Amino acid sequence: MSRQRPDAFTGELFASIPQAVPAVPGAMDFRKPVAELVAGLLANAKRDRYDVAAKISRLCDHETSKALLDSYTAPSREECNLPLWKVPAIEIATNSRGITEWLVAVHGGRVLWGAQVLQADLGEIESRIQALMEQRRHVKEYLRRSGHGG
């Protein structure tokens, strides 16, 4: 039996395929990572926490204070993670999509944004066209060999 050598051209390609977090007991306790994600969003925001809190409050029409934002970032405050319904608002307020991208990665995916969606659609369309052309070629070849046209 021969051993396959690693392919220098595609080795990294398959290493980057997203994998879902295993659905095993205890694997889905994301309280600390969520707190750290929120802390990172706030730390990298171009505005301070008071401005972020005000922007979230306006977007949600629900009061969000700087103190509440602080509690969302504290891993020790296990009962006070960012609620899912505020994720779009905090991402807009901090100009980040970090939480959405993290959540999709937990499920083994990656997010496409804007024109990337159309590029992916175009790739799928091109693939379908190639498959149909191959099918067309096979049908024509069958018809030619069977003497029914083509």
Give descriptors for this structure:
mainly alpha; 150 residues; single chain
What does this structure look like?
There is one protein chain. This protein is mainly α. The chain is 58% helix and 0% strand. Helix 3 crosses helix 4. The chain is elongated. The relative contact order is 0.10. The mean pLDDT is 90.
| Secondary-structure class | mainly alpha
Rg, please? Answer: 25 Å
Report the order of strands and helices.
HHHHHHH
Q: Overall mean pLDDT score? A: 90
Shape: elongated
How many helical elements?
7
Q: How many β strands by DSSP?
A: 0
> How many angstroms separate the termini?
45 Å
* Helical residue percent band: 55-70%
Quick take:
This protein has 150 residues and is mainly alpha-helical. It is 58% helix and 0% strand. Helix 2 packs across helix 4 and helix 3 crosses helix 5.
